[in-house]
Amino acid sequence: MQKEEIVLKIANETDSERISQLVNSVYRGENSKKGWTTEAGFLSGIRITEERVKELIERKNDVIILAVMNGNIIGCVHLEYMGKYSYLGMLSVDVNIQAKGIGKILIYECERYTREVFGLNEIRMKVISRRTELIEYYNRRGYTETGELEEFGARGDTFGDTNDKLYFAVLMKKL
To answer: Is 1 within a domain?
Structure first.
């Protein structure tokens, strides 16, 4: 059997609906419980809207990188130029094919893009602090906690409903 090829590409507006469907299926709702990246145990509602995805695609300092296999979007990640560093967010891999290295491919592409396109040598990200398994995943890829914590929803740019007080841990990696 021939190994299926994963193609990386930059998202455009026509990908917005499929991106929002993927991200929401990975992080929230029943389907997300099949994967290890779910937030369904402590957050309800959606993770992102199609309109928000379109906004990110249209912004000049942002890029959404897609992993595509057989014409299907199987993963995505948002990368934003922040001046002194890039910000990595929304890393999502289809729950039916997680643990096959697709997330790692997308992270490596963000690191390459940060160095070669943005001309920067640092990436930062925010992870909900109670997601210890996810923080450990990033630690294994060279990301370390900065000690900074940010209250979930403090900037009004997050989606989801919770009764818990949640915080983002800030992680970074020098490239």
So the answer is: no
Residue 8 phi/psi, 5° resolution? Answer: -100, 135
Chain segment 45-100, per-residue pLDDT in tens: 667 788 898 999 999 999 999 999 999 999 999 999 999 999 999 999 988 887 78
Full-prediction pTM beyond 0.90? no
Which residue segment(s) compose the domain that 147 sits in? 7-174
* Cβ-Cβ contacts under 8 Å for 55 (sequence gap 6 or more): none
CA-derived radius of gyration, the chain: 15
**Where is 21: in which H helix or E strand?**
helix 16-27
Asked whether residue 105 is assigned to any structural domain, the reply reads yes
- What is the identity of the amino acid at 154? A
In a domain, 2, yes or no: no
